[in-house]
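Practice problem. Given the sequence and the SMILES for adenosine-5'-triphosphate, write out the predicted structure.
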Amino acid sequence: MKQQLITGLDIGSTSMKMMVARKIASDSPLEIVAYAEEPSSGVRKGVVVNSEEAAKKIMMLKNRIESAIGKSSIDEVVVNIGGSHLFLTPSRGMVAVSRADSNISQEDIDRVLQGARSLSLPANKEVLEVYPRHFIVDGEAGIEDPIGMRGLRLEVEANAICAFSPYVRSLAETIQTADLGVADMMPSVLAAAESATTSQQRERGVALIELGAATTSVVVFEEGHILHLTVLPIGSANITHDIAIGLRTDPETAEAIKKEFGSCNPSHGKRSRTVEKTGMGSVSFSQKLLSHIIASRFQEIFQLVQKELKKAGRQGKLPSGVVLAGGGAKLPGVADLAKKEFKLAVRVGSPLEMVNAQDDPSMLVVAGLVRRAAELTDGKEYGGGDFFKKVKKVLKAFIP
Ligand SMILES: Nc1ncnc2c1ncn2[C@@H]1O[C@H](COP(=O)(O)OP(=O)(O)OP(=O)(O)O)[C@@H](O)[C@H]1O
Ligand SMILES: [Mg+2]
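Answer key:
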């Protein structure tokens, strides 16, 4: 088997991450061969606002990885799309079965899904992807896989993930400026779900919350399908901002304090700490105050998420609980705090079935993008099936 290298690129508001993996054998798990991260540039609230700036960073990542693996072999990436312009909407499609013998074929499935893509949307919005929920054959609903069945009329009920077109275009432009191709675009939160939840959990009911720097995304799955998806314009950077104000210091120092001493546990002692500011003297604070600032903001974020779970009708009702991802999930005690807010089992996600993967929740998005890239290269699924089965991509859609 040819050893193909597969690449995921996570363009975030504060950091950009690139991961390259390979497969030794067709049935072996993916093996990470290189990973690099750079501070982000040209990205605000999950959206590319300056393609040139963002492309420079992507080229830096590409060069770093290529010199680490000693090859210039990255020419195409699966990239995330972030930002609160993303939304989920139900869609339907209907076609007459094409074959004379009424046997439903892949071609009918492709056509009916294509039909589900062409729903009427507000101005400047477009469908990124449709995910079938179930098929209907001659009025009989709830069919998972109609291929080979006989029928005259094939319908599909699907979920469409939609985005603001100018943001999709600027992302595609950025990747092109960095001299790379776009193999696929995937919402960050779905990529994280692909790497940190099993198909069994998605079948039973699970929520994934991605605690990014500028955004917090939520996706709820049930019966293997997306029930709800939303991106909130608030994140871990708000915590840094609160720390800077609360401790009367600059944002850089606040960020360093958060990473070194940050915690959501109010019981983390009465210790007082003193930290040198970057060339500006020092700042003193109590651990208790720091934990209080962090926990308060997380509570606010989780209350917003809880509203989303309520909209999905799954408040307190998810058998497989909640999985946390994103850099914000690195703060000690965040899972316990979330557990109190949601009254559900909560855990920090780890990447499933990947060799050399670090147990770092901020890498779950890029790991999911790599999985998606692998699926595209060999047509096999790594997320454990069902939901991530997608419509064949019309890649031209991403070319600006
Ligand atoms: N060890 C750590 N402890 C606490 N917070 C951390 C740690 N490491 C990273 N973070 C925080 O995580 C955030 C970055 O997370 P992540 O990389 O998931 O965001 P992003 O992808 O850049 O942003 P977004 O997804 O919102 O566009 C930053 O706010 C950073 O302060
Ligand atoms: Mg992110």
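Check your answer against the key. The first helix runs from residue 51 to 69.
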